[in-house]
Amino acid sequence: MSIAASLASAAWRKSSYSAENGGNCVEVADGIPGLVPVRDSKAAPHGPALIIPAHSWTPFISALKGDGFRVA
């Protein structure tokens, strides 16, 4: 099965950091072996997804939480 087909049938869940009032809607799809797809469900609910290798997910989240993506 292709990644596109997997994303089309994926079970998306809202991030625990998304606001309950409809703001900052980040969703993550579960059940795609080796990958963690992430999308902005407020701006583009059926739009593109950022595909992160599963082994990079924890370091990615740690960098986000630790402000590891500063823009000068």
The total beta strand count reads 4
Tell me the overall shape. Answer: globular
- Radius of gyration, whole Å: 13 Å
Order of helices and strands: HEEEEH
Q: Name the strands of the widest sheet in spatial order.
A: 1-2-3-4
- Tally of distinct domains: 1
What helical percentage do the residues reach?
25-40%
Describe the structure in your own words.
This is DUF397 domain-containing protein. It contains two helices and four strands, in the order αββββα. With 72 residues, the protein is an alpha+beta fold. The chain has one domain. Strand 2 (26-30) and strand 3 (35-40) form a beta hairpin. The chain is globular.
Task: Set out the fold topology.
Layout: H1 3-8, E1 11-14, E2 26-30, E3 35-40, E4 50-53, H2 54-65
Antiparallel strand pairs: 1-2, 2-3, 3-4
Give the key terms:
about 70 residues; alpha+beta; 4-stranded antiparallel β-sheet; 2 helices; 4 strands; globular
Brief description of this entry?
This protein has 72 residues and is α+β, with helices and mostly antiparallel strands.
